[in-house]
Structure formats: C-alpha cells, structure tokens
C-alpha cells in the first residue's frame, strides 16, 4: 500500500506531499520490492473519492483522463492528482488531499480522501524552494540535471515552474539517449512555506 498526504493551495495548485509510506497489503498479492515501476501498466480496479462536498465527484471524474477499468500507470495517477488540484484551484477552494494506492498483482485500487476548506479560507502563500534532491539517477549526474533546470534554492515555486523543470530533466535524458520516467514530489518537511523538490527517476 502506498499512502500519500497532499496539501493543495488554491492560489498555486501545487501538490505538497507531507508523508509517504510503502507497505504490503494483507490478503493481496503485493509487490515484494515495494510499489511497481512508475510507468508499469496497471488495471485500475477501483477509484474511490470521499470527503468532497463543494466539488462533486462527477466534476472530479470529468477532469480525469482515466476511469475505473482503464489501464493506468503510477505516473498517470500522479498526473490525475494534479488534474484534481486544478479543479479546486478554478473554484478557489483549498483542500487537504490524501491518497492510498493498494497494489495486487497487475491491478491497483486508488482511494482519494479530500478535506475541503471554505473558499475564503484558501490562503495565497508563496512557496520557496529550500532544497532539490535527485533520486535514482545513475547515468546522469546531479550536476547534469541541475544544469538542465531553472529552479534553485530560494526560487519561488508554482505548478508551471515545477512542470517546466520536470520536462527539462526529461529532455536532458533524451539528449543523452537515455530513457527514463521522471516524477517530482514537492514536500514541506518543516511544515512552513519552504519546499523540498524530490525528483524520483527510474532509468531504463
């Protein structure tokens, strides 16, 4: 089971991961070495959304490019979370977002738990990069990847800047003729407005 807790600020639409854990699921065939690769196709066995009141489940599902029964990857699920954040941003509604992924063989069960805030409670707080971490990169050095990106410690971060740097890392791998799946997780370990960006890289 993979559990994530995210905090979305409507003014920024940046998913802030405040926790991450991986464990096996009793009674199910789980991956012994942890969750499957980020780009591995999985059958979406179920997608459960709870806690949403100001934004209907139909609105959330309409924003997603996948639905129950489809084949998805962890990367696509992560992108779907960003789509949900975008829906809430447009409505100026803040939220706390929790995610549980349960893997069973080639299938995945997704549960999204939403705790909404009143529209007027959504605060516009600038998030600042505190540190940038690269994980899983062996064929390209940290220096190579840093040179390809624009965000640095002290930079103000928003969704567009984060997405642009994620694409830049992907292009750096392409330039070196290396195939890789790139994920980026922003977290707030200190609980303030300082963000640690962690690039989760799966090289092929």
TrEMBL record:
Cellular component annotations (GO), alphabetically ordered: outer membrane
Protein keywords: Membrane, Signal
Main localization of the protein described in the UniProt heading: membrane
Domain of life: Bacteria
Compartment(s): Membrane
Domain (POTRA): residue spans on this chain: 127-204
InterPro entries from the UniProt entry: BamA/TamA_POTRA, POTRA
Full protein name: POTRA domain-containing protein
PROSITE patterns the record matches: POTRA
Signal peptide: 1-23
Family annotation (Gene3D superfamilies): membrane protein fhac (3.10.20.310)
């Amino acid at each position: 089971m993979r559990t994530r807790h995210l905090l979305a600020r409507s003014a920024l639409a940046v998913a802030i991961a405040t926790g991450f854990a991986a464990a096996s699921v009793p009674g199910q065939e789980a991956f012994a070495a942890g969750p499957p690769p980020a780009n591995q196709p999985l059958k979406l066995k179920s997608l459960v959304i709870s806690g949403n009141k100001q934004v209907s489940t139909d609105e959330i599902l309409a924003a997603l490019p996948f639905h129950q029964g489809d084949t998805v990857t962890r990367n696509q699920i992560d992108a779907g979370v960003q789509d949900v954040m975008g829906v809430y941003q447009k409505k100026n509604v803040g939220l706390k977002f929790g995610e549980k992924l349960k893997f069973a063989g080639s299938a995945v069960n997704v549960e999204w738990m939403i705790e909404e805030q009143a529209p007027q409670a959504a605060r516009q707080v600038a998030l600042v990069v505190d540190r940038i971490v690269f994980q899983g990169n062996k064929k390209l050095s940290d220096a190579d990847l840093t040179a390809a990106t624009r965000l640095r410690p002290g930079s103000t971060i928003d969704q567009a800047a984060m997405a642009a740097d994620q694409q830049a890392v992907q292009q750096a791998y392409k330039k070196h003729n290396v195939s890789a799946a790139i994920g980026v997780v922003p977290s707030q370990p200190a609980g303030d407005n300082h963000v640690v960006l962690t690039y989760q890289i799966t090289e092929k």
